[in-house]
Amino acid sequence: MTDQNRGIMKFQSADSTPMVTLSAVLILGSIAFLIIWALQSAYAIG
After folding, report:
1. How far apart are the C-alpha atoms of 32 and 19, rounded to whole Å?
2. Per-residue confidence in pLDDT tens, the chain, 46 aa
3. What is the distance between the alpha carbons of residues 41 and 31, in angstroms, rounded to a whole number?
4. What distance in Å separates the CA atoms of residue 42 and residue 1, rounded to the nearest whole number?
5. In this predicted structure, what is the pLDDT of residue 9?
6. Dihedral of CA 24/26/27/30: which sign?
7. How big is the CA angle at 19 (ends 26 and 1), to the nearest 5 degrees?
8. At CA 16, angle to CA 19 and CA 32, rounded to 5?
9. Is residue 9 a contact partner of residue 19, using CB atoms and an 8 Å limit?
10. Does an H or E element contain 37, and which?
11. CA–CA separation, 46 vs 3, rounded Å?
12. C-alpha span between 35 and 38 (Å, rounded)
C-alpha cells in the first residue's frame, strides 16, 4: 500500500494520474469560482 492510498481516498488507483488531475481541477475550479463570486459580491464588477 502506497502512502497516497492511506488518506481519505482509500480506493484502488487513488494515486493514479487521471484521479490526481481530476481532483486538482475540481479543487482549483472551486477556489476560482469562490474568488470570482466573492469579488462580484463585494464590488460592482461586470
Report:
1. 20
2. 555 555 666 667 777 888 889 989 999 999 999 999 998 888 876 5
3. 15
4. 46
5. 63
6. positive
7. 135
8. 30
9. yes
10. helix 17-42
11. 45
12. 5
Residue type, 16: S
Cell numbers linked to 30: 472551486
| pLDDT in the model for residue 20 | 85
Q: Which residue has the cell 482549483?
A: 28
Angle (CA) 3-18-20 rounded to 5° is: 45
Q: Is 39 exposed, middle or buried (0-12, 13-18, 19+ CB in 10 A)?
A: exposed
